[in-house]
């Protein structure tokens, strides 16, 4: 996906400025519902930003009154057509499709740089799956969150039930999943799902961009190390995680960024760090 192709996206628009990539969902007339194009565009955009080392942090927001109504009805209609024919082959095909959808949000975890999400209004169904894969979450006072799939006669299958229990209590996750009720912004803040609640969308974007700028000012190697270690420790024991940390430091802890940080502090200036390398395009 070239820079030109950023302008050809159907479901989002992308800008990169001051080492911050801003991905905006831009179908407000359809409540930013996730049509088939969304599921390929999001991971492709995130991967392109990472591969080209064109930013040090990603901010995802949305235009309009609501962040996202989740999976579009057209996707559900397409899924319905798959329940015909020979059962075993249909089941295998459905399994692969669900894994592909999961990969769209796995990309947010796998990208080397932090992903911040700024949400207003409804964060519904698949949108909850998505924001659970981000590093940090922020919302407006009018935001609400709902695991809508239960009301639709299905089990949420793209990451909510796997990631949300690492963010809030098991009991609350189960209540939200079993009932499909709305969690309002105050409750989301109190339980730790979101970092901060803002009065409105403008102040939220200003605040989140300030946090993104603070992240972008730090050593990219230090920040990507933090993300890698935190993701690993979530899924492994303390002992395994400490061993992994030691292995990381044996290769990644070099003096150049530390020396630059100390020199900048002594000289009372902003440090200047090299970007991460771009993805190798071949030998």
From TrEMBL:
Recorded coiled-coil stretches: none
Highest classification ranks of the organism: Bacteria, Pseudomonadati, Pseudomonadota, Gammaproteobacteria, Alteromonadales
Family per similarity comment: Belongs to the enoyl-CoA hydratase/isomerase family.
Highest taxon, organism lineage: Bacteria
Protein name: Crotonase/enoyl-CoA hydratase family protein
NCBIfam families: PRK06142.1
PANTHER family reported in the protein's UniProt record: ENOYL-COA HYDRATASE (PTHR43149)
Classification via CDD domains: crotonase-like
């Amino acid at each position: 996906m070239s820079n030109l192709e950023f302008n050809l996206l159907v479901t989002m628009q992308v800008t990169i400025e001051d080492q911050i990539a801003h991905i905006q969902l831009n179908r407000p007339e359809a409540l930013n519902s996730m049509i088939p194009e969304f599921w390929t565009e999001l991971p492709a955009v995130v991967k392109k930003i990472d591969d080209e080392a064109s930013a040090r942090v990603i901010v995802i927001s949305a235009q309009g009154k609501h962040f996202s109504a989740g999976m579009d009805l057209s996707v559900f209609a397409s899924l319905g057509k798959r329940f015909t024919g020979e059962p075993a082959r249909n089941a295998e095909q459905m399994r692969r499709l669900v894994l592909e959808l999961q990969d769209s949000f796995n990309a947010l975890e796998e990208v080397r740089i932090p992903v911040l999400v700024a949400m207003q209004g409804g964060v519904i169904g698949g949108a909850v799956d998505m924001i659970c894969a981000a590093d940090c979450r922020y919302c407006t006072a009018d935001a609400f969150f709902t695991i809508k799939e239960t009301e639709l006669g299905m089990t949420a299958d793209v990451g909510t039930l796997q990631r949300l229990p690492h963010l809030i209590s098991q009991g609350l996750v189960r209540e939200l999943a079993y009932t499909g009720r709305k969690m309002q912004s105050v409750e989301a803040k109190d339980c730790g799902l979101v970092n901060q609640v803002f009065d409105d969308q403008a102040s939220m974007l200003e605040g989140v961009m300030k946090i993104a700028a603070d992240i972008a000012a730090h050593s990219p190697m230090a920040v990507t190390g933090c993300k890698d270690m935190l993701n690993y420790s979530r899924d492994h024991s303390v002992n395994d995680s400490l061993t992994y940390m030691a292995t990381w430091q044996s290769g990644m802890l070099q003096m150049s960024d530390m020396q630059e940080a100390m020199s900048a502090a002594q000289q009372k200036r902003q440090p200047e760090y090299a970007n991460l390398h771009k993805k190798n395009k071949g030998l």
